[in-house]
Design brief:
With 182 residues, the chain is an alpha/beta fold. It is 32% helix and 15% strand. The longest helix has 16 residues, at 56-71.
Length: 182
């Protein structure tokens, strides 16, 4: 049974002690994730189970997330040191306890998470959060797809999908994220 306790760090999947949070507008369409009210760590094999039950879209989200973590500069982020490939990282660490990663379905809660990197998936989602007042950030649009609030460590990027966030764009996002650690 999943936790029903409300978290002040967000509602979603992953480590409640996250320092790398990705925000997405949708939730896996599975009964066990419908009523969660906190950030709950996944168990080994759950990412695969979500992909099997919810389809290719969710597999892409998890794959892109793992590819991004694996592409980050190891001087600033240590995720790559945990696994020999992004696939191994996805299967053995991503969104699990002590991974320091989260995939959140709630709006970004930036305080007291000043040491956390916040990535919002999709320009449309980011704009809806800003327009509704659910995102308190001062975004500077770097181009049509990426925005940055360096002070709050918020980055807006294309949705975690191969067509929208291609390998080249993952590399660009990794460079942008490294600027938050300088």
């Amino acid at each position: 049974m999943r936790s029903k306790t409300t978290s002040d760090k967000g509602i979603g999947l992953g480590d409640n002690n996250m320092n790398f949070s990705v925000y997405i507008a949708n939730t896996p369409n599975m009964a066990e994730y419908k009523n969660i009210q906190s950030t709950m760590p996944l168990n080994k094999g759950e990412i695969d189970a979500i992909g099997q039950a919810c389809g290719n879209g969710w597999r892409k989200v998890f794959n892109v997330y793992a590819k991004l973590l694996y592409a980050l500069d190891s001087q600033h982020f240590s995720y790559r040191s945990n696994a020999s490939s992004w696939q191994e990282y996805r299967d053995d660490y991503l969104l699990q306890a002590n991974s320091h990663t989260a995939l959140l379905f709630s709006p970004p809660f930036l305080f007291p998470l000043k040491n956390t990197v916040h990535i919002i998936c999709g320009k449309t989602y980011a704009k809806s959060l800003l327009n509704s007042g659910k995102l308190k950030a001062r975004l500077t649009w770097l181009d049509d797809e990426f925005a940055l609030d360096k002070g709050n460590k918020v980055v807006v990027c294309p949705y975690f999908d191969y067509r929208q966030l291609s390998n080249i764009k993952i590399e660009r996002l990794a460079v942008i994220l490294s600027t938050l650690k300088e």
